[in-house]
Amino acid sequence: MRSIALLASGGDAPGMNACIRAVTRTAINHGAEVWGISNGFQGMVDQQTEQLTSRSVAGILQRGGSVLGAGRCLEFIDPAVQARCVDYLRGAGVEGLIVIGGDGSLRGVRALNALGFSVVGVPGSIDNDVPGTDNSIGADTAINTAVEAIDRLRDTASAHHRAMIVEVMGRHSGYIAYMAAIASGAEMVIVPEHPIELQAVFDEMEAMQQHGKRHFIIVLAEGAKWRAAELTQLINDADNPYDARYTVLGYIQRGGSPSALDRTMATRMGVVAVGALLEGKSNVLVAIRDGMVVPTDLSTFSADETKSDPWLQEVFSVTSS
């Protein structure tokens, strides 16, 4: 294999640049050209590519975001468009493709593989919701960002005897919320996977008040039953011991310099992704399994499979009591 293409799809995640750098330098070290595709699958549709060199990826290891751009492409869902993209890659001499992204991006990996094109996926998702891997690029940095914010908000909450609702990302996954709540010692976490009733929130607040706590921190995933503003209003409209305020962290969780863990993990994944293509593998996910980076056959799990970790709920329940 003498020519490899690379793209980052879906939402950006801190550490993607580390993977782009590793893919580029590993492929070049094996005598292959590397072509970067701009703006995810949209760049493939629009035929926007540029050759990557060891120098062009210098200095990007510590940068957040993606130097290739990222994003979603509804147009790529059309099988006819997928076929045209494969024809374009083959016409340009590209023999294999590496896709960095989340579960939606893996659908693109499966589609291209079905058309006979060699393609490997690398999990990049701050929600860590990609099935088949223990961890995804960007999740650690996003959690660290959330924990730092919660630690700061606790000081104000304690000073003013307040309940502080901190809304983090996670439309369908409570991973960031759970991990941030565990790491920050929050009193409650509310996630899409485990809906709770409003009375349960009130009861827990009353219990914490009786234990003498001056603050009550709720970490709320954005896909939960309520958004932060709504839950704050519900708390303040009822007879509760804490005055509630809320903060929505939003996109700051995506940005910023990646953590050391995300940098090293993304680098390892990039090296293994290139190796998988050179070995003739396709339709695989470069996954973290028990600390090891291993190519995992995507056909071993469904495209619609969701990732769930009941262990997180158990750990939070024990440590927050």
Walkthrough of the structure:
- With 321 residues, the protein is α/β, with parallel strands linked by helices.
- The chain has two domains: 3-138 and 258-302, Rossmann fold, CATH 3.40.50; 139-254, Phosphofructokinase domain (Rossmann fold, 3-Layer(aba) Sandwich).
- 40% of the residues lie in helices and 19% in strands.
- The protein has ten helices and eleven strands.
- The protein has helices spanning 16-29, 41-45, 79-91, 103-114, 139-159, 175-184, 198-210, 228-237, 260-278, 310-319, and strands at residues 3-8, 33-37, 49-52, 96-101, 118-123, 162-168, 188-190, 216-221, 243-248, 284-289, 292-297.
- The strands form two sheets. Strands 3-2-1-4-5-10-11 form a seven-stranded mixed sheet, with helices on both faces. Strands 7-8-6-9 form a four-stranded parallel sheet, with helices on both faces.
- Helix 6 (175-184) runs parallel beside helix 10 (310-319).
- It is elongated, with a radius of gyration of 22 Å.
- The model has no long low-confidence stretch (mean pLDDT 93).
- Distance between the first and last residues' Cα: 56 Å
Number of domains: 2
| Name of the CATH class of the largest domain | Alpha Beta
Query: So what's the overall shape?
Result: elongated
Q: Indicate the structural class.
A: alpha/beta
Let me know the number of strands.
Answer: 11
Ranges where pLDDT stays below 50 over 5 or more residues in a row are none
Described by strand count, sense and barrel closure, the largest sheet is: 7 strands, mixed
